[in-house]
Amino acid sequence: MSTTPSLTSFRALSFDCYGTLIDWESGLASDLSPLITLLPASHPWHTNPLLAVQRFNDHSEHLWATQPKLAYDANLVESFRLLAQEQGVELGEDALQKIGDGPGRWPAFADTVDALRRLGRFYKLVILSNVNEMNIARAAAGPLAGARFDAVYTAEAIGSYKPSLENFKYLFDGVKREFGVDKEKGELLHVARSLTADHVPAKEVGLSSVWIARGGDQPEGYGTGGDYGKLKEEGKLGFGWMFQTLGEFADEVERQFAAKGQE
Predict the structure, then answer these.
(1) I want to staple 59 with a disulfide (CB 3.0 to 4.6 A). Which of 24, 79, 107, 123 is the partner?
(2) CA-CA distance, 132 to 134, in Å (whole number)?
């Protein structure tokens, strides 16, 4: 883990939300249960729902690339419809539509809100999310209540989905305009779990980043964040720090600021 530059040199943190702050995989697995329960008892998704989440995510990412103007709630509904069709299962419209508001109610990780409160003492906090405006607003008022965000930039507002570099350009322009934070001067640090959606493009655009791994450094924990071993071998990753949780990252930030006498 690199400690150069110091974490005290940044003025703002940008966050991926789902998978980093919100337990996206567990929340989605729960919403996929109406499909899973209709599958044969021998189906592997019964014992490992994460496999269903990964396949769902394949459909969702395909829609990100082919229908970038599709709002995320509609993306979720259509991905669920495609997943059910693929498995030969017919779901009612109510079950399909329910998943569309999932991002507004899926739980935050246990460490998230406390860590954000602590990080907010030192930095501007910004969300860069693929989720639509309505769902991110509901998440901020619900599972993320108690945390402060200085700005929220969504795929719906931007018109494309990460890993599109347009989303990161929008971020850079936004934080410079709103807070005077200049990515080119090394003042912005991106904090994310997803390797493919966040850390690969971050390296492409020269954005400093922190990996909140949440088990993703081990093959059994890769989930929807990407194949760490493969991406590392291909030289596509450039994050400067890795922590398992956001809480551990906040601990290190507090330690470094305290060491500089800036508590």
Answers:
(1) 79
(2) 6
Q: Which of 16, 31, 73, 111 is catalytic?
A: 16
Q: Classify 242 as helix, strand or coil.
A: strand
What gap in Å lies between CA 229 and CA 237, rounded to an integer? 10
Instruction: State the Cα–Cα distance between residues 12 and 156, nearest whole angstrom.
Output: 22
Verify whether residue 16 is a known catalytic residue. Answer: yes
Q: How far is CA 77 from the centre of its chain?
A: 19
The structure tokens listed for 173 are 């322009």
- Closest listed residue to residue 207, CA positions, set 175, 240, 234: 240
pLDDT tens-digit readout, 35-50: 999 999 999 999 999 8
Q: What is the largest CA-CA distance in the chain?
A: 61
- Rounded CA gap, 23 and 18, in Å? 7
